[in-house]
Amino acid sequence: MVNPQSKLQWDDFRLIKAIADAKGLPAAAATLSINHSTIFRRLGQIEQDLGIKLFERHRTGYALTPAGEEMVAVAARLDADVAGFERRLAGQEITPAGELRVTTNDSLLIHLLTPVFARFRDQCRDIRLDIVVSNRALNLSQRDADVAIRATDSPPDNLVGRRTARIAWALYGLASDFPNGPPEDRESLFRRPWVSLGDSLGHLKVVKYAHEHVAPENLVYKIDSVLGIAEAIESGLGIGHVPCFIADRRPGLVRLSELMTDFSGHLWLLTHPDLRASARVRVFLDFLGNEIAKERDLIEGKWRG
User: Is the pLDDT of residue 94 over 60?
Assistant: First the structure.
């Protein structure tokens, strides 16, 4: 029976949702930055006050009961409402100041964006940048980030933004191995050792190409990040496909093919519609758009130093 004196708090919904998402107490406690005993005690108190179990305890984890599922659904709606309210408030900013959370991947950050961010900070001292390095699509609706910088031809429908350049790829090798440039017998390249992105990125055309054209015994090195491909080639591990904006600035590498147009994708600057009028977001996107335009030849494989 429900305790008539009990009254659920917003934090109670947040706690139950965290346990449901984590399917257990330790990970949920870490998410909420509380200790295991505290979350165990609070869950027990909530269930006691409601007079009903919210989770079935199994050896494999915590599974929601029907009442728990209903409470988690309410929590999700609360999260969405709060995030929407915060976005709308952020979108009404007049002065470009405060923290701006930006998500991008490691290769774009290291090889292209960090100097741009530094120049932005020189001009906009009142904006603090919080960079989230991730290859997964963060939820801008939930304010996981304010701006996403992504290489894609299919940006999410719920985001708005602009295309700035098309990222070109080509085949590269160690310059000392090819003193006269690409060999006339291009088929001989497939008999060499190759480096490639890993199987976890098997949905990418560049990975499919390697699997379809290179014998398994010649795929000697795989890595799950574009960031390490150029370093692997420079270290003499083999030849491989690299974005031109990474490889063309390295004198130790030489281009061995024409641009691989099938591998290229647009570089997008994305935000949530509620945030595009925010002074912070607008100033940042305008600055990045102008700066990336200056690097378009490099990004699109037309730069020759």
Answer: no
